[in-house]
Design brief:
Blueprint (H helix, E strand, L loop, with lengths): L1 H12 L26 H16 L9 H4 L3 E3 L15 H24 L6 H26 L2 E2 L14 E2 L1 H18 L18 H18 L5 H14 L9 E3 L9 H8 L5 E3 L1 H9 L4 H5 L27 H4 L5 E4 L1 H13 L8 H15 L4 H10 L7 H12 L4 H11 L25 H4 L1 H11 L14
Antiparallel strand pairs: 1-5, 2-3, 4-6
Pfam family, one: SusD-like_2
InterPro entries: SusD-like_2, TPR-like_helical_dom_sf
Protein name: Susd and RagB outer membrane lipoprotein
Length: about 475
């Protein structure tokens, strides 16, 4: 993996080898270290790294998903758990990482690919890879901010101040784009090589990933457009979603050239601040959850979480994240097998054709999370007997278990808590907001560079506030 990462990403910065030697005099005007056209594969690798690293980043300067779901607490500086999203400009930083560093590279890769020498089938698959990854990032942006620049974005020669598109309209278009790109893929042909740092060119896996994004989109529509939701979810499952941990969308780090963002923020930076919250510790304790042993250290022989939103006692007084999360080589698992199973269980609970009953799919979901975290089969069986599916209150049953299973999977976890309203998250007493966050406010830079459009978007959604719900978060 180390060599692949170095070849694919470092090669963008040291790219002399990408430029053919030329003997004509015109070559004297060319800078071999900064070629005018980068290979699309390098641009893909950069976009995959940037999007994965910053979707998964626990830094207080970025998305703060882990605080929105109240699973991490802060000890020394509790401003972020008190929902201060202004001082560190988290909205600006996440917005820019997704648009400038991720989507922009994919858009440029699509343009460059058109002029690269490939067979028709390989070019089609490479274009499909870029398209699916782009859709994934758009989904992140909509589920983080709501209405965002979409149809007029990335047209600098035509439009300098793009409008903000309606979030549901974007959702519908993303679903159409998924259907179109899946239909175009040539499964038996190759895709990208070393630059595909997730699936290594396996187009069948990219198809499963695309259908899993579609499943996410469909479930999120359940309370606002049940008919479209049902059709979308059933179509995604029938088309083939992530079916094992081997299919999961994981960006793997070599621990040398590139390290896991949790490692970078907790270990490499020597930050003695982040601890598991008492909310997650107490919930898992009450359920006798065996994953605690894998995830957390003990203090004084017990698991003890930090008080969310409060200035806590010394770091040494609380449980810490175990080495399971603190390794430099831990992958960013951004769409996991466990998440897909919980989405399918929810689909069955809502009456959709999901490939099984809610009871069975709930058990499969819990089991897949346990196995992902190395829990023994006998222990899993005991846990399921003690914590069975509750059909009467399925939102609580699935919601709490998904919230636990999605620990350290920020956006996925936030989607479940917003959609199912379980577990109940209480706004901390010293919060800067009137409730827990339901969205990320818009970037402050947009008010300077794209003022008319961002103000119109803010007015349309009911105010550019973290407490304004997304269109699909109906209840």
């Amino acid at each position: 993996m180390k060599n692949i990462l170095k070849a694919a990403l470092t090669g963008i910065l040291i790219s002399a080898s990408l430029v053919s030697c030329q003997s004509d005099l015109t070559s004297l005007n060319e800078d071999p270290k900064h070629p005018s056209v980068l290979p699309s594969e390098n641009l893909l690798a950069t976009a995959l790294f940037q999007s994965s690293y910053y979707m998964d980043n626990p830094s207080v300067n970025f998305n703060n998903y882990r605080f929105f779901t109240q699973q991490w607490a802060e000890g020394q500086y509790p401003q972020e758990t008190q929902y201060d999203l202004v001082t560190r400009n988290q909205p600006r930083n996440h917005f820019n990482r997704m648009y400038v560093y991720s989507l922009n590279n994919l858009r440029q890769a699509k343009e460059n690919l058109k002029n690269e020498v490939e067979t028709e089938d390989v070019r089609t698959n490479k274009m499909a890879t870029l398209e699916i990854e782009e859709i994934f990032i758009w989904e992140n942006l909509v589920d983080t901010f709501g209405d965002v620049p979409y149809s007029e974005a990335f047209k600098p020669n035509e439009i300098l101040t793009p409008k903000y598109d309606d979030a549901k309209t974007i959702y519908i278009d993303l679903i159409k784009r998924i259907d179109a790109v899946i239909a175009a893929v040539k499964p038996s042909a190759k895709g990208y090589g070393s630059g595909d740092l997730v699936y290594a060119g396996s187009m069948p896996k990219w198809i499963k990933f695309a259908n899993s994004i579609k499943l996410r989109l469909g479930i999120n529509l359940a309370d606002v457009d049940p008919t479209l939701a049902k059709a979308t979810v059933e179509s995604a499952i029938a088309g083939g979603v992530i079916a094992s941990e081997d299919d999961a969308y994981k960006f793997k780090y070599d621990g040398n050239t590139f390290s896991n963002p949790v490692f970078d923020n907790l270990v490499a930076s020597n930050r003695d601040d982040f601890v598991p919250s008492e909310i997650v510790i107490n919930t898992m304790n009450s359920l006798s959850d065996p994953r605690m042993e894998k995830w957390f250290t003990k203090v004084g022989g017990i698991y003890k979480g930090g008080v969310f939103g409060e200035l806590n006692d010394p770091y040494s007084d609380f449980s810490h994240l175990n080495d399971y999360f603190r390794s430099s080589t831990t992958a960013s698992n951004l769409l996991s097998y466990a998440e897909v199973n919980f989405l399918k269980a929810e689909a069955a609970a809502r009456g959709y054709a999901a490939g099984g009953t809610a009871v069975d799919l709930y058990a499969t979901a819990v089991t897949s999370s346990m196995k992902e975290n190395g829990v023994a089969d006998a222990t899993i069986a005991t846990y399921l007997v003690a914590n069975p599916y509750n059909a009467v209150n399925w939102k609580q049953s699935i919601g709490v278990q998904a919230w636990i299973a999605m620990f350290n999977k920020g956006l996925a976890c936030w989607n479940f808590t917003r959609r199912l309203d379980n577990p109940t998250l209480v706004n901390p007493p010293k919060s800067n907001l009137s409730s827990v966050p339901y969205r990320m406010p818009y970037s402050d830079q947009e008010y300077v560079l794209n003022g008319a459009n961002v103000n119109a978007a803010a007015s349309k959604i009911g105010g550019d506030k973290a407490t304004t719900k997304l269109f699909w978060d109906k209840f």
